[in-house]
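Reagents: none. Just compute today. Pyruvate, phosphate dikinase.
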Amino acid sequence: MSENKDQKFVYDFTEGNKDLKDLLGGKGANLAEMTNLGLPVPPGFTITTEACKVYLDSGDEPVELRDEVSAHLDGLERKMGKKLGQADNPLLVSVRSGAKFSMPGMMDTVLNIGLSDKSVEGLAEQAGDERFAWDSYRRLIQMFGKTVLGVDGELFEEALEDAKAAKKVTVDTDLDAGDLKKLVKHFKKIVKAEAGRDFPQDPREQMDLAIKAVFDSWNGERAKLYRRQERIPHDLGTAVNICSMVFGNLGPDSGTGVAFTRDPASGHQGVYGDYLQNAQGEDVVAGIRNTVPLADLESIDKKSYDQLMQIMETLENHYKDLCDIEFTIERGQLWMLQTRVGKRTAGAAFRIATQLVDQGLIDEAEALQRVNGAQLAQLMFPRFDEKAKVEQVGRGIAASPGAAVGKAVFDSYTAVKWSRSGEKVILIRRETNPDDLDGMIAAEGILTSRGGKTSHAAVVARGMGKTCVCGAEELEVDTKRRRMTVPGGGVVEEGDVVSIDGSTGKVYLGEVPVVPSPVVEYFEGRMHAGADDADELVQAVHRIMAYADRVRRLRVRANADNAEDASRARRFGAQGIGLCRTEHMFLGERREYVERLILADTDEERDAALKALLPLQKQDFVELFEAMDGLPVTVRLLDPPLHEFLPDITELSVRVALAEARKEPHENELRLLQAVHRLHEQNPMLGLRGVRLGLVIPGLFTMQVRAIAEAAAERVEAKGDPRAEIMIPLVGTVQELELVRDEAEQVIAEVQARTGVELTLALGTMIELPRAAVTAGQIAECAEFFSFGTNDLTQTVWGFSRDDVEASFFTAYLEKGIFGVSPFETIDKDGVGALVRSAVQAGRETRPDIKLGVCGEHGGDPESVHFFHEVGLDYVSCSPFRIPVARLEAGRAAAQSNGSDSR
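Predicted 3D structure written out:
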């Protein structure tokens, strides 16, 4: 039951508007908006998401709902001059889902509600078309049986295929009224056998059961999977739209289609969409019958085409964005069934945003909100090398761009199974349906032989940023035999490698080599933002990035450990280095010096090992400071446990055993093995590492500080501008930091005295332990900057060992909804984020000018960047490749907060 007796659960299309998406869902809100605009929308009403929430929470619909639905149904019947399901002049309705966020094909829809053994005759007489009436009836039983009664949809499909085979036809439009009557009878038998009940003849029972089925579909497996993939909250619920039916399957002067006000794949303006004569809307989306381009409608029905073009212009100007439109033509009368802001590819998003600015529909701040970091990352993926020798075997519709290579698989189960085993796969189907979602997520790309840019495969792939080629008709897909026949008779078996180009629609045998994206070349300075068509995308990216850089408050630094990475990061727009991990400088040939340090039995041996490391470290820093001249470079002193620099214990044990068996000298290996045993820890990531190493091993941190100071002095003498910052890792108490800082200041003073160069080296720490975050006010007394190490902070807050838990139970936690997303991917705002927030506040209360940043992987995660902007950090630091993404999201965060402030 609902708690508020006055709560309204049903809204007529004339009552809502596009701003009520939370309540009416996207579909209902936009149907109401089109009704308000005076566009031809079939009358109807919407059951709110609040009613769905009551139903899902209590297991039953609100007690008021039935009466409200009855009242609105009475009004609809008066408006239409018909009654639901009456025998002589039946009103038929569709029952369609419609959540706040678009979830294409993930929830349920039932068309033609109100048809029965009696009303089908009335519909035939009303329409003057017996075949149409029986075709509509078989569609209802098929959709209702699968959606509402849980009958296996394949049983209906097989019966339909058998009927076509018996008639020796290939498309369902070639079945006549007599064939369809027989099919209806067969379908009803399937329902009785599989559902244990007859197909309901009472039209109100049909509608009530369909409404509940749509509510239930919110928690269907495919809907939950899609929400997890798209990060849509699970507690929103879906609205239900009851709309009077208009029919596109009334003959050649009727049809149905999907239109876009711009190309959702490229963003270019023009006439884009699909049309299918003598069909209902589900036929277009399902891709069962191949459509004709929307432009062909002009020659088929000029009056409807011209009216549709005018409506599309009206909607785009009203919504100020690319609109995705569903429409039906019933005997020459155009009806609008849906509109929404359309899903688009990453490239289209950037192009459309700048086009709309040029048209004066939106400003630069709004354009920045129309794109995101995930889309920019997609544009940075490699593309196929056009100069490579390739074997093209087909071409379809370029539905969603990208260059995807993988082994051919022909069902979702195999796609998921092989993907989990580390294989890259291409999912190949005749057409996809919502049940294929898990396979589509697992695959590198999707290839279908049917459907167009508005088919299920295309729409879902674009939404996920997944490469997709649709409607490759020359390819014959045989899912039962797990093979695809290509022109000329060649066969692609399951497991064969194929390559698909979602930008051109081309399909190739074998692996096609890739080349860098032009967007990456632009960021690296190898391509300039020109105005010609080839550079149109680069130009759009350039314009939006320039605006993001102008408005963002957060600076963006790089995680880089050598001069090469630093130089690349600088080309990508890095404003310094936020994390230089010095342990990476101890690898390779330098391991022997670390081994000597670990094996040292005397102060002299230890000092000799450190002395040998000093010039090597210094030269690394000289090169790094040169690459980042004039920009800050935060150098983290040695952090990982020393055992990581020693050989594997098993490998070393075998070497010692073999040497002993052969009576060969093995004193050094034996000492190493003893050291490995001595340094062994049950949980080394919580053991002797970070600041603890600097306090336990005399001279280790002072050697590193000396190398930094001497390198900085050398760069100053060379007229450079080094801006080094020394970061002490894994501090848990201010006393640790004080001890290391005292030693560091002595070393810096010695270098200054010896070189005569005045050095300004900031000293700070990583906040990566809960205790450090909680006592940040104390630590700030000794630290000039904090850098939040959110990887380790996440591990220590959650009690996770990342290497272990991601492989063992994270998948289950994501599936069960415990995580919406991995806390290592996007910062856990309630837990880890709360510590960051409190540490920022405490640090600034103690030291108002303290510099605050983050250098964990979250620094390049779009959602996390917004959080770091909100809590007031000064910069984020991330891998070089993610710098453009962080720059863009920092700009979006600033623009959003500025918009909120102005409101």
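The CA atoms of residues 411 and 427 lie 7 Å apart.
Action item: order primers for follow-up constructs.
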